[in-house]
Amino acid sequence: MARSVSSADKLIREMEMFGEDFSGYQDPELVEEAAEQLTTPTAPHNEKDLVAAPAPTSSDPSKAKKGKLAAKSTGLTYQFQIMELLGIPRDEIKQFADPIHWMKYFPPIAQQDCTAVGARIDWRRSFVTSTSPSSTGRLSGSRRRNTKLHILSTADVNPYYDSFVRWQMNELKAQGRIKFGERYTIYSPKDDQPCMDHDRASGEGVGPQEYTAIKMKVLEWASGVSDDFKAALEGLDVYMVAATLRPETMYGQTNCFVGTGINYGIYKASETEAYLVTERAARNMAFQGTFDDRGKLHKVAEVKGADLVGTKVNPPFGVIPEIYIVPMEGVLANKGTGVVSCVPSDSPDDYATLMDLRKKAEYYKIQPEWVANEPIPVLNTPNYGDVTAAALVAKLKINSQKDKVQLAEAKDIAYKEGFNFGTMLVGDYKGRPVQEAKPLVRKQLIDAGLAFPYAEPENQVISRSADECVVALCDQWYLDYGVEDWKAKAKM
């Protein structure tokens, strides 16, 4: 039922865009071709030139594509196009805006197909395992926008099955097995709803990746930043926000990296604060309660990464109170926030980059004093000592930040070694195992207002409505499978 509701909601939006008969839709390729013909007219030599050549066809039935696979492989964007691909006449498609119509239309076809292939099925025992949807409006939590979409209501499709499900859910809730709260989920802003695997054009199986977003307050802008840029930020405390998986190492920050070719935005988070991140990161944050206005981006200014080099910031929990922004070749605009904290004691990538910058300061257009800080020991590991990154770079014979294969291996070793066997050397949890200290340091940073939780899709997810999905905090009912006594019963 969830699929029919989701698809019906898509059709409702598409009819609002293109009309009930979808006549308002124009194929972008045809529009582009028409524009090209208008700009470069050619006179036909004879009448035959007025007739378009037929599109090539294949007689091989194995080349036929149907359903969801076809939608993904042919580049179709809209639900009504997929319906047409299934052979449904365009004038009938509007009926599928009612999810119940899906339940009446497709089961007989499925039954015919099963019979045709010789399946021996007793259809007298078939029944609908679904509740009935209505269009009374979307359930609204404290951070939800009101949208007219189908939601599930009292069942009239199959009251017997509905009664069974209600009994089961009430029993589980009475036992404390069902919880309610905000949880991270892959979400389509365009569709204004979670985007499950069956709603995706690409990115099936991709889930949320959680980070700790570290707030580094800007103390002094680099000389490359314009006066107009500074004027736009007047009255705001600006923070460069780095996403990290290792909050326990933030004591050892010696620099902060940016990508010189990346465009960064300054996005207003509140009346007094603004965050410098990529637009992709800001879009995710907008649906996680990070900004005052959920789902909205308020860009105050824009700046090129190259212009940020030389900016001075304050790293939270850093042993060094002021550090400089410097360039890094491996910073990606589609991963994290585009801002990377530099901890050369425990990150081989950071250590190798720092050594490169020191050797070629003029080439990277930086001042030598910006990268003069030595690595700060943060944690000790039995195999690699107090500065794991330096030990691994030497062991694997890594010469620069361009040695991607060796650095990937070194990173994997460093992270596993630090988490599994590391002991903290600094901070309130000095002497504690990293496994214990990690969540405690993260909580400290967040409670102090120096960091906040941040999540994004592990990889790119595109919905069937051609929207790049984000990670959103959504109100959800869910079964708490992690309860120990329940897990114990399952193992019996």
From TrEMBL:
Protein's recorded name: Uncharacterized protein
Source organism of this protein record: Naganishia onofrii
